[in-house]
Amino acid sequence: MSKLSILALFPIYFLSWLAPGGIVGSAFAQPNIYTFPSPDIDLGQSSNARVVSGGHYIGGRGDTVYVLRQFEGTLCHKSTDGGRTFGPGVLVNSTPAAVNASLKVDTAGVVYVAYQSSADIYFTKSTDGGLTFLPGVKVNDDTIPQTGQEKPAIAINNKGQVFVAWIDKRFGSNWTIFTSYSIDSGKTFSLNINVNDVLLHREDPDIAADDNGCVYVVYEELLPNVRQVAFARSNNLGQSFSFHTYVSDVPADGSSCCAIDPTIDTDQSGLVGVSWWESRDDSVTLRFSVSNDSGQNFAPSVIVDKSGYPQFPSILCENGLFYISWRATHRRTPSGPELNHIWFSYSRDSGKSFVPFVDAAPDTNIAPHFRPSIWVNETEKAFVAWTDPRWDPFWEDHHLFVSVGKPLLSKGDLNFDATINLVDIGLEINAVFLGQPFPAPFHRADGNCDGQLTPADMVILLNRWYRGIPFPCE
């Protein structure tokens, strides 16, 4: 029988051992396929104050990357070569003393920023690729001078709608969470919405939104003996928040615990992920919980890191995968030095588990690293930013750094194991004939780059695996 005849029989052969739910035995333990080679990029002196709610101060489109640096205001640096070099910082704020800025970039490349100036929250954006930013628009609507509004977080969707959340003291000594939304791409903002009316710890909220009118907010809430990650959802573009729950787990024995620094992200399919770090029984863990039904229910949390005092997570949901970076003290190798660095992992199974983490800071300096932010572009290249004081012997003056992670991933590798094998063939067949999802982004399975999955893509992958024929496109 010729090779061509054998290839023609492959779909029948594989379909014969598909279970009702898809291919049998396709789940294997996976390594982390990312490396963060030297050097990282130093963008200059930066404040080590809490940079941004939820750790969102880097983003972009393709190889165009934007990152915010807090130094005598807020500066936006831009790279057009995939993070190899960055241009000088452009002042974001038209008001004095902008701090705690939060950034998102839409599919058209518009850069959206929320920031704090004195005791007010402002919004601005750049429509010319970060060359200039529009005058700031005040978001909070209270009329009491110098009433505390701090630490904004920003979210956008694909409809030109903008959402901002922040902590607010307009009701007195206790902090509460307020939000506002814009349906005209940030020209005007709605009346402010009080998300909660209970006592908060003074930490950051985070916010996410989808194209279906859902807006999600997470924040720390003080309860007797515990500090929980609270979750609120709006089904009407942020006009009201009628659904509240807790994402973090209360200890069954009633012991004290503290869930800290929640961060959230979502996609358009109802997938919502939340991460935080938690101090419980003299141990600190980095945890993650996922919802598959737009936040109606959250799965029990999984531990991403349970040693090294993990802190300050930043997450991203992109192409159905969750990516996460955080700060902790670990060894790169069993005999290497302990490094208080920024670490990176991702989940291939919608947040049920995470691959082993790797060091996202390629430097070998033992200076403590702080406040990471993560973004991943459309070709799975990962960008991580943080601050550290490596140039100061007293570890006081911080600089902002960016590193770029490259996956050992090629077209046809649908399960993120850095090889093309029978598992990838099975995933491709399941996708073509059964419409089932696969861990890798869509373009890894689209063998002929025509924007759809057909039997032609399956044959192309079979030819690549069995006969070594290159893909017609990359």
Which short descriptors sum up this protein?
single chain; 474 residues; mainly beta; Neuraminidase; 2 domains; eight-stranded mixed beta sheet; five-stranded antiparallel beta sheet; 3 helices; 31 strands; 8% helix; globular
In words, what does this structure look like?
With 474 residues, the protein is mostly beta strands. Helix content is 8%, strand content 41%. Helix 1 packs across helix 3 and helix 2 packs antiparallel against helix 3.
Task: Detail the topology: elements first, then pairings.
Elements: H1 3-15, E1 18-19, E2 22-23, E3 34-35, E4 41-46, E5 58-61, E6 64-70, E7 74-79, E8 90-91, E9 98-105, E10 111-117, E11 120-126, E12 137-138, E13 149-156, E14 162-168, E15 176-182, E16 193-194, E17 206-209, E18 215-223, E19 226-234, E20 243-246, E21 257-266, E22 272-280, E23 283-291, E24 302-305, E25 311-318, E26 321-331, E27 338-347, E28 358-359, E29 370-376, E30 382-388, E31 398-407, H2 422-434, H3 455-467
Parallel strand pairs: 19-21
Antiparallel strand pairs: 1-2, 3-31, 4-31, 5-6, 6-7, 7-8, 9-10, 10-11, 11-12, 13-14, 14-15, 15-16, 17-18, 18-19, 19-20, 21-22, 22-23, 23-24, 25-26, 26-27, 27-28, 29-30, 30-31
